[in-house]
């Protein structure tokens, strides 16, 4: 028996990187998956990949900064796939070019809207699981290449991203405490640097790639499938007593 048989999962940011790998992994474990992304074509592509492998899926366009749309996406999942057991609040943007408001809107408010709508709904339906994607940046400050070289910008470039991801850890703990008795487990995953389109710019030259790899004691970056494995675990009954946890999947980045 597969680990997510008869479950229905909604994944945000499902059109790329960690969200796509997790959608595929959930489906392999037997879940029906609603693939949601601001990039509708990308979400449809992930759903099509699941269907081609014999799984059950659907797709929708979702901007997680839209409070009402997040609520509506949960209802659409129940309508189209017949239930809702798992929400993976994964959509996010890097701190690169987006400003403070946009990073906080997507990475923190987007996660909050998911929690706010899904936690009571799952509780009412008899229980469920919510997983949020935080980051190593939810636990420690980031060491940029410039800072590592001794350059000290007036404003650290990762500030908004780090603040948003620390906020996700806080929200995870609060909702876990508030909903534990109502059958809803809430956890987050804190990845190190992972090879997805989000980090493509940082890895485009060999020097950048080597610098990032050197920050991880395993001497390499993560693969999206390695984060997906953690998401499957947290979504499954193997994690039935895990609640309010920050699951670090970082090749040892934060162990130093
Ligand atoms: P990714 O490959 O860029 O995928 C993110 C997906 O989310 C993209 O399809 C993106 O669409 C979508 N998205 C962006 N804004 C959205 C919005 N407002 N509403 C709905 N979807 C939206 O990035 P990833 O690396 O898989 O990142 C997934 C999560 O992991 C993020 O929360 C990220 O912060 C976190 N994370 C990543 C790393 C890493 O090293 N990659 C490390 C730690 C944590 P567009 O492409 O159209 O923007």
Structure description:
There is one protein chain. With 256 residues, the protein is of the alpha/beta class. It has a single domain (8-250), classed as NAD(P)-binding Rossmann-like Domain (Rossmann fold), CATH 3.40.50. Helix 4 runs parallel beside helix 6 (159-179). The mean pLDDT is 96. It has a 7-stranded parallel beta sheet, with helices on both faces. The chain is built from 9 helices and 7 strands; from the N terminus they run E-H-E-H-E-H-E-H-E-H-H-E-H-H-H-E. It is globular and about 55 Å long. Helices cover 45% and strands 15% of the residues. The protein has helices at 17-28, 40-52, 67-81, 100-124, 145-148, 159-179, 200-203, 206-214, 224-235; strands at residues 8-12, 32-37, 57-61, 86-89, 128-133, 184-191, 246-249. NADP nicotinamide-adenine-dinucleotide phosphate binds at residues 12-13, 15-19, 37-39, 42, 62-65, 90-93, 106, 110, 133, 135, 191, 193-194, 196-199.
Query: What average pLDDT do the residues reach?
Result: 96
Any idea of the CATH topology?
Rossmann fold
Count of DSSP-assigned helices: 9
**What count of structural domains?**
1
Biggest sheet details: 7 strands, parallel
Would you identify the regions where 5 or more consecutive residues have pLDDT less than 50? none
- Which architecture would the CATH scheme give at its second level? 3-Layer(aba) Sandwich
The CATH homologous superfamily = NAD(P)-binding Rossmann-like Domain
User: How do the helices and strands follow one another from N- to C-terminus?
Assistant: EHEHEHEHEHHEHHHE
Helicity level, as a percent range? 40-55%
Structure class:
alpha/beta
Bound small molecules, which ones? NADP nicotinamide-adenine-dinucleotide phosphate
Radius of gyration: 17 Å
């Amino acid at each position: 028996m597969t680990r997510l048989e008869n479950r229905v999962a909604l994944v945000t940011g499902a059109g790329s990187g960690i969200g796509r790998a997790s959608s595929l992994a959930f489906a392999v474990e037997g879940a029906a998956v609603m693939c949601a992304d601001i990039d509708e074509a990308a979400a449809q592509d992930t759903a099509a990949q699941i269907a081609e492998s014999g799984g059950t899926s659907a797709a929708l366009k979702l901007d997680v900064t839209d409070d009402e749309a997040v609520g509506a996406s949960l209802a659409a999942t129940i309508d189209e796939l017949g239930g809702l057991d798992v929400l993976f609040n994964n959509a996010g943007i890097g701190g690169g070019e987006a400003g403070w408001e946009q990073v906080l809107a997507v990475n923190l408010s987007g996660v909050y809207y998911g929690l706010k709508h899904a936690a009571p709904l799952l509780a009412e339906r008899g229980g469920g699981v919510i997983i949020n994607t935080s980051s190593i940046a939810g636990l420690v400050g980031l060491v940029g290449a410039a800072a590592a070289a001794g350059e000290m910008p007036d404003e650290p470039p990762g500030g908004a991203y780090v603040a948003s991801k620390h906020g996700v850890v806080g929200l995870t703990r609060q909702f876990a405490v508030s909903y534990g008795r109502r059958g809803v487990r809430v956890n987050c995953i804190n990845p190190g640097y992972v090879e997805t389109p989000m980090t493509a710019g940082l890895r485009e030259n060999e020097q950048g790639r080597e610098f990032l790899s050197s920050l991880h004691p395993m001497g390499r970056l993560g693969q999206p499938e390695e984060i997906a494995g953690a998401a499957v675990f947290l979504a499954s009954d193997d994690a039935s007593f895990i609640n309010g946890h920050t699951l670090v999947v970082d090749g040892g980045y934060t162990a130093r």
